[in-house]
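User: Predict the structure for this protein chain, please.
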Amino acid sequence: MSFHSSTELAEHVSRCLELAILLEVSAYPKPGNVHRTADFPETKYEHFLASAVAVAPPFKHAAERGIKVSEGKIDPADVGIGTVIKDAVKDMSLWQRDGNTLLGAIILLSPIAVAAGMLGKEKFSPSKLRKNIKVIVESSTPMDAVNVYDAIQIAKPNGLGKAPKLDVTDPASKQKILDDQVTLFEVFKIASTYDSIASEWVNNYPITFDLGYPFFIQQLEEVKDVNTATVHSFLKILSEVPDTFIARKVGLVKAKKISAEAGRVLEKGGLTTPSGRKLLLKFDKKLRDPAHEFSPGTTADITEAVLAISILDGYRP
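Assistant: Here is the predicted structure, written as structure tokens:
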């Protein structure tokens, strides 16, 4: 696809990411999460739709920053990835009343938006995008870290837990980040051992690119249905990577058991067979506990990144 202007390219990138969020949250029956046929008491499907629309402008800005990097007008360290994340979280919070719906997705998708803008008029390829993502996250600054801490405090996510170092709930952490010149990349490196979003950031998105993306493309070719492909990709990621949101709430042992169950649903055929569908519905019901301790929220965030890459690469529903 060719673009006549930088504005066109930036708008294209933001629409791709917005669509990725909309398709992911609409996929059903996505076990343990909000989707088009299931709400939580306090969090509705509409909250996610509003959030997806709200974060498109910050993603457009992120792509514009990436374009400026490609043109040599700014350095990667001057992108302000932390500001992009903070602005997206602010807009997410302004456009719906539930609070945190997309924090993890925003953290994952913001570097993707910048990296896509950095491609400029080059032909899109996932490998080029991935190289650009690496440049952006490794060029992050201490101020980016402070802005992301602000974003987390705005979103007030559940199940955050206590970090052993530079805890986001500790008021002194932000000043220590600035005093010690700790970059956002280094902050996420600390968190990467217990959080898959942080791990994706510092390890160049292996779950997204090496596991989720090829599986989603394969599923699209086999089942010719985006809903089935999305649900199956969600299950595939969950089956191989225990959800760290669940692990922080109820422990890694239980998170691994849930992953094993996701694998069994896929083995039975998932949405493509009567027995797979029956097992999937049972699995979904089991994960819908009132405290949301078994909600695979991190898996949903990574699935959105998988969809984003696929849509940037030309997939259309």
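The radius of gyration is 19 Å.
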